[in-house]
Amino acid sequence: MRLWVCIALLSTVLCASADRPSIAERVVRAGQFVRDAAGGAYDMFRAYRDMREANYKGADKYFHARGNYDAARRGPGGAWAARVLRWPFLLPHSDARENWQSGVSGRGAEDTRLDQEANAWGRSGGDPNRYRPKGLPSKY
Fold first, then answer.
1. pLDDT tens-digit profile of 125-137?
2. Peptide bond just before 21 cis, omega within 30 deg
3. Total number of domains constituting the chain
4. Which end of the chain is more exposed for a tag (fewer CB within 10 A), N or C?
5. Rounded to whole angstroms, what are the CA distances from 51 to 8, 17, 30?
6. Residue 38 structural domain
């Protein structure tokens, strides 16, 4: 009788825990998230580097969209990096920096708003070529 009770309890415990991922699976998923986040940060850095290298007037929105698009395609970690990291310094969002960009830098609030629109477009999976200016070398 005790044997059957033990088997029944063991079966119940195994069935109840079968739906939850094991610790090893959670660690693997966490590692994938971190890898995707690092890759997404690199994607955004690469787009920023390309923007600086191209030095092409009117192309900044394209590079904003491309960096966010590439990062978000990596998976949840890349999408997180695209949401959290901001241009151009790839640091967490700063109200002081946003105010400086829109007020002191001469770029204006409208330009900052358009940059954020391009970021959101890229993060949502929209084609970055929507913002690609004519004449931008095909290298980019």
1. 999 999 999 999 9
2. no
3. 1
4. N
5. 64, 50, 32
6. 34-131
